[in-house]
UniProtKB/TrEMBL annotation:
It catalyses: uridine + phosphate = alpha-D-ribose 1-phosphate + uracil. The gene is deoD. Keywords: Glycosyltransferase, Transferase. It comes from the Bacteria. SUPFAM superfamilies: Purine and uridine phosphorylases (SSF53167). Belongs to the PNP/UDP phosphorylase family. Gene3D superfamilies: Nucleoside phosphorylase domain. The keyword Cytoplasm does not apply. InterPro entries: DeoD-type (IPR004402), Nucleoside_phosphorylase_CS (IPR018016), Nucleoside_phosphorylase_d (IPR000845), Nucleoside_phosphorylase_sf (IPR035994). It holds the Pfam family PNP_UDP_1. One of its GO terms (molecular function) is purine-nucleoside phosphorylase activity. This is Uridine phosphorylase. The keyword Glycosyltransferase applies. Its EC number is 2.4.2.3.
Length: 232
């Protein structure tokens, strides 16, 4: 049992899905897992382990932001021997061609978070996805006929930015969308030599102003879950 995860050794599978919302974790477990068992309720961050097509798999919420997911990723890796961490989250589109409910694979994560700047003494570190998981996700999407986009995303420490138009400098350089966790996840995974991948569903667009509801984000983003669970 760790500080923030009330599980015992062996309760968590080597592969875990990581939505930000703990209620999305509950929905994933109840919708896709066979015989899911809750292993964590600490701080309301629900976590479950079950099986999918005979293989053990876990899911747990991480909360919002780089610090939150970094804490959970660190404990999952160092205290529960998790080897594959797959974030399944929502994102805001930065590009006109990236539409609501599109699925995006994060090849790399640019960021305005200060954590890596502190860690690397002011130098830039480029957090990237694990190639094997990334490649498996592409193959799974092809098999299921799920269209995907892939590229650089932006991990932000700010949800309500003072300058709304600031996203345009990132979109100009091809950044696809914005979320709040991937740069932290990829960095922690790299530090401990394990595998990480982020799969995102576009929940809103900064370009058009379109949005999905919180309930839709919780329970309807099935395409990315189907991809994630297949590569698990």
């Amino acid at each position: 049992m760790s500080i923030h995860i009330g599980a015992n050794k062996g309760d968590i599978a080597e592969t875990i899905l990581l939505p930000g919302d703990p209620l999305r974790a509950k929905w994933i477990a109840e919708t896709f897992f066979e015989n899911p068992v809750c292993f964590n309720e600490v701080r309301g961050m629900l976590g479950y382990t079950g099986t999918y097509q005979g293989k053990r798999i876990s899911v747990m919420g991480t909360g919002m932001g780089v610090p939150s997911i970094s804490i959970y990723a660190h404990e999952l890796i160092t205290q529960f021997d998790v080897k594959n961490l797959i974030r399944v989250g929502s994102a805001g589109s930065y590009q006109e061609h990236i539409k609501i409910r599109d699925v995006v694979l994060a090849m790399a994560a640019s960021s305005n978070s200060g954590l890596n700047e502190q860690r690397f003494g002011g130098a830039d570190y480029a957090p990237t996805a694990n190639f094997e998981l990334f490649n498996k996700a592409i193959e799974a999407a092809k098999e299921k006929n799920i269209p995907i986009k892939a590229g650089n995303i932006f991990t932000s420490d700010e949800f309500y930015a003072d300058d709304f138009e600031s996203y345009k400098k990132w979109s100009k350089f091809g950044v696809l969308c914005v979320e709040m966790e991937t740069a932290g996840l990829y960095t922690v995974a790299a530090k401990h030599n394990v595998n990480a991948l982020t799969i995102l569903t576009i929940s809103d667009s900064l370009v058009t102003g379109e949005k999905t509801t919180s309930k839709e984000r919780e329970t309807t983003f099935k395409d990315m879950i189907e991809i994630a669970i297949e590569i698990a």
